[in-house]
Amino acid sequence: MKKMFLLLMLVSVFSCAKKVSQEKVVAKEPQKEKVVVGADADSHGCKASAGYTWSILKKECIRIFENSTKLNHAEDGKTYTTVSYVIFDGNKAELFLDTQKESIILERKSEGDSWVNGDWQLIPWKGYVLKKNGKIIYTGE
Fold this sequence. Notes:
This protein is α+β, with helices and mostly antiparallel strands. It has a domain at 64-140. 17% of the residues lie in helices and 32% in strands. It has 1 helix and 10 strands.
């Protein structure tokens, strides 16, 4: 009887050990890398997730939707949901366009003149009119 009891104990121990070892075989999924919000600083240290963009004129990270002039896409029969912005510093204007990766610096010769850079022209007329190659692209106040 004691031998039988001992034999049952040994069998149950080995069967439990087998289950434990099978559970350890289950592979774990690799953990996904966590993305830290605000860790998207550009080469100037500006964090786009916080709304900051590098300004060449100001030489600092700015939020272009604050303290800037909003330019809406000109009416040409199409519906647009994007806007662009311009900031001013003396006789210079910096354009932040939705179609350009980098901002564009425009200059004017004197008060009342248009700001110009190559094909781009920002005209102070009933607010502002932005032209490229003579075609009105954006207007704003």
